[in-house]
């Protein structure tokens, strides 16, 4: 009997692209708040998700340096399960309630790519970097103090997709006042069968359910963000018209479930 939570399945199940849940994540994050054309956000929304007129085109660009584990000591295999990621969250509404939607996301690890597709995150391969912070004092240490500067970038297919820089100014007393919207994503798998290519096998709106979500060492400050036009990509259509604050922090959560909010095939 073949085993494995995901393909490739094998007699022992060790070759699967990602282990079975529960999944646990810890990360250092940089996030930049900005505003873009509300019409460009509206054009990205799946059925049932509506524009948020109060948000006025507000979005966040995130960069993350992740440590992952499931239930088999995966955190001691960093070559396989440590990874970096960059994604966009745009503000919208579902059933009148404020939500985030993730239209674009890049990752540098195949296990993370697999977990993202299972959940509905539209992950593509990319190269992501951010300034690291170290405890030993040094001009390169980037301590978490006022005045420290951090940078981050994401590239794909040899093209720079986005660049961010922030300068820390003050701690954030209550991060839930900043990061307080649930994230919805579209789980979509097409068919290759002739005559069925416009009828996806899976087409769902899902909730990115995060158990025990925790934020620590949250600082805010000034920020810069650029999203240039790149051939073969659409992300520049929601490039910044105005940039707000930048944030640097640590975050952790677990994933044990995937609520289905809409099944478009039902």
Question: Can you describe this structure?
Answer:
With 266 residues, this protein is mostly beta strands. The chain has a single domain (23-263), classed as Acetoacetate decarboxylase-like. The chain has helices at 38-42, 78-81, 110-119, and strands at 23-35, 49-51, 58-69, 83-94, 97-107, 123-125, 127-130, 149-156, 159-171, 183-189, 202-207, 211-226, 242-255, 260-263. Strands 1, 2, 3, 4, 5, 6, 7, 8, 9, 10, 11, 12, 13 and 14 form a 14-stranded mixed sheet that branches. Strand 5, helix 3 (110-119) and strand 6 (123-125) form a beta-alpha-beta unit. The chain starts with 22 loop residues before the first strand and ends with a strand.
Brief rundown of the structure:
With 266 residues, the protein is mostly beta strands. It has helices at residues 38-42, 78-81, 110-119, and strands at residues 23-35, 49-51, 58-69, 83-94, 97-107, 123-125, 127-130, 149-156, 159-171, 183-189, 202-207, 211-226, 242-255, 260-263.
């Amino acid at each position: 009997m073949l085993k494995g939570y995901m393909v490739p399945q094998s007699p022992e199940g060790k070759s699967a692209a990602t282990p079975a849940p529960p999944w646990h994540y810890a990360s250092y994050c940089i996030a930049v708040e900005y505003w873009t054309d509300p019409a460009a956000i509206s054009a990205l929304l799946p059925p049932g998700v509506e524009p948020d007129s109060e948000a006025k085109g507000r979005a966040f660009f995130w960069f993350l340096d992740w440590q992952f584990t499931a239930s088999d000591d995966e955190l001691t295999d960093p070559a396989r399960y440590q990874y970096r990621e960059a994604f966009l969250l745009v503000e919208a509404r579902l059933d009148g309630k404020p939500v985030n939607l993730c239209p674009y996301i890049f990752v540098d690890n195949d296990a993370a790519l697999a977990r993202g597709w299972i959940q509905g995150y539209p992950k593509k391969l990319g190269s992501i970097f951010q300034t690291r912070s170290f405890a030993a004092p040094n001009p390169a240490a980037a301590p978490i103090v006022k005045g420290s500067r951090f940078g981050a970038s994401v590239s794909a297919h040899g093209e720079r997709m986005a660049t961010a820089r922030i300068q820390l100014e003050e701690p954030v007393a209550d991060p839930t006042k900043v990061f307080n919207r649930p994230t919805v994503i579209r789980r979509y798998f097409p068919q290759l069968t002739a005559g069925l290519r416009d009828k996806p096998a899976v087409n769902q709106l899902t909730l990115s359910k995060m158990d025990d979500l925790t934020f620590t060492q949250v600082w805010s400050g000034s920020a810069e963000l650029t999203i240039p036009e790149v051939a073969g990509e659409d992300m520049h259509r929601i490039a910044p018209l105005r940039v707000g604050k930048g944030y640097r922090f640590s975050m952790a959560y677990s994933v044990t479930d995937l609520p289905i909010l809409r099944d478009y095939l039902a």
